[in-house]
Amino acid sequence: MPLQSDHGERYDQFRRLSRRFIELAEIDSESRHEAKVAAVIEKTVTDMGVTVCYDRAGEKTGGDCSNLVARFPGNRNVPPLFLSGHMDTVVPGKGGESAVQKRDFHQ
Questions:
Q1: N or C: which end of the chain has fewer CB within 10 A?
Q2: Residue 83 in 3-state DSSP?
Q3: How far apart are CA 53 and CA 66, in angstroms?
Q4: What are phi and psi of 97, to 5 degrees?
Q5: How far is Cα 1 from Cα 45, in angstroms, rounded to an integer?
């Protein structure tokens, strides 16, 4: 069932996530050229108070950026959770709108 505006907070969260995804997907970021998208992600999470560092993968792969590692402080006495994702996009991944159809993705 599609999300409708009468769903309140759930709909607002979906809209924010949609806008963030499109913002990131539209940044030029083909493989080994992820520095621009990494900078946006780094600013986003550091503004949230998160600690960020980079490994040295970029040196080994010839990329303009390494893997971004963000450590969110926990507030429970439980084992840590590790999440992983890609910052690069497939070719063609630069110079224009993302492949996401904005009107379809937002509805």
A1: N
A2: coil
A3: 9
A4: -65, 150
A5: 31
Strands (E), 9-86: 51-54, 68-71
69 strand-pairing partners: 53
Assess if residue 33 is contained within a domain: yes
Residue 58: half-sphere exposure toward Cβ, Cα within 13 Å? 16
* pTM (two decimals): 0.77
Position 94 in a domain: no
pLDDT tens, N- to C-terminus, the chain (107 residues)? 455 555 688 889 999 998 998 888 888 888 899 999 999 999 999 999 899 999 999 999 999 999 999 998 888 888 888 888 899 887 776 776 555 555 555 54
- 105 domain residue, yes or no: no
- The widest CA-to-CA distance across the chain, in whole angstroms, is 50
When divided into structural domains, the chain yields a total of 1
Domain that holds residue 39: 5-88
Residues 52 and 70 sit within 8 Å (Cβ to Cβ): yes
Give bridge partners of residue 51 from the DSSP assignment: 71
